[in-house]
Amino acid sequence: MVRFSIVRITLLPQNKTITISGEMRVSVLLKKLSLLPSTVMVIRHDQLLTEDDLVEDDDEIEIRSVISGGL
User: Structure pTM?
Assistant: First the structure.
C-alpha cells in the first residue's frame, strides 16, 4: 500500500493553508513557494527553522511574514 505524506503549511498573515507532498529542506520549500528567506520565519511546534532544516512528512508548519517598522 502506498502512503501519501503531506506537509500542511499555514501562511500568515494571509491565513491561507496549503499542502505539499514530500520531505524537503526549508530552502527548497521557500523556493517552491517563491518566498525569499529573509522575508519570512518558518516555524514548527514553536521552533524556528533554518534554511538547512528538513520539513518532514506529516509536519504542520507556519510561514510568517517578517514585518518591520520604525521611524
Answer: 0.85
- Output the nine-digit C-alpha cell for 4: 501519501
pLDDT tens sequence across 31-60: 999 999 999 999 999 999 999 999 998 999
Tally: H helices and E strands in the chain: 1, 7
CA atoms within 13 A on the CB side of 55: 28
The domain ranges of the chain are 6-65
Q: Which CATH class is domain 6-65?
A: alpha beta
Q: What is the rounded distance in angstroms from the CA atom of residue 40 to the CA atom of residue 44?
A: 13
Residue 5: predicted pLDDT: 76
Q: Is 46 helix (H, G, I), strand (E, B) or coil?
A: coil
Distance between CA atoms of 57 and 40, rounded to whole angstroms?
21
